[in-house]
Amino acid sequence: MISLNHMKNIIIGLVIVVIIGVGGYFLMNRSGDKATETPTNTTSLPNGAPSITQVTSREETVIGKSVENRDIIAYHYGNLNMQGTSTKELLFVGGIHGGYEWNTALVAYELMDYLKANPSNIPSNVKVTVIPVLNPDGLTKVVGTSSKFSVSDVSKSQTTVVAGRFNANTVDLNRNFDCDWQTEATWQSKKVSGGASAFSEPESMALKNYVNTNEPTAAIVWYSSAGGVFSSNCHNGVSPETSTLTRTYAKASGYPAHDNFDFYEITGDMVNWLAKENIPAISVLLTNHTDTEWTKNKAGIDAVLKYYSK
Known about the structure:
Elements: H1 4-35, E1 40-43, E2 52-65, E3 71-79, E4 88-93, H2 102-117, E5 126-131, H3 136-143, H4 158-163, E6 184-187, E7 190-193, H5 202-214, E8 218-224, E9 228-231, H6 240-253, E10 257-258, H7 270-276, E11 281-286, H8 294-308
Parallel strand pairs: 4-5, 4-8, 8-11, 9-10
Antiparallel strand pairs: 1-2, 2-3, 3-5, 6-7, 9-11
């Protein structure tokens, strides 16, 4: 005959078993949900190298603040936690001229949508970083936000659009980098401010700090409008890698390739500063101020991804 105390011990034991089983079930399911946030792809490397498992994800980094305290955000795609392989970081930048060149921000957002929808197109040894808006104050002035927007948000006032080229200190950010910097710079036939000193502006300093910390393998920067791919250099000539990057993007996209931008003198240019830092960099100038020419740019991007997969 079972005693009352023995019966209590049996019941308590059964309750403990049930609690452990239920807890384990929920723990396993929570772990599974978390894993689905980073889809896994197996990619074969070129030249007969063994395939590796690629964990594709997206991360965001606030790399700095604008004059008006808006976030400058870098978005990272690809294999962000690679072990035992050499990661090449490709940096894409849009919106340095804010709302005046708003289509350069939109093409960067189109790239982000493309990478999100097609993570397996990113080679297993490549990390892609996109800074869609380097001048959030200038963009906000024209479209009302520093985030993703639509063409219908663009101001109809040409005066406002032109004013959106500059940051909130009325500095042309693409004249504020340390290659031939001058406080008074040129934009077409106009005189513009290059800032009080090279990197005087928080936006250009944010880009500088990111580049110096992460040392990207190559950089592609969108501007408008001339319709071409332009190599960078800062008095040392165009490096062989920059020349290859220029021609790879140009051939695939259909834009003409140029060794330099010689329409007028430019001081404090960002891609030329990148060249000074020994980072291959190109300027991709869209044909006008309204189209993203995504088909052309997607072809150029795919060609660059393929090139750096080797």
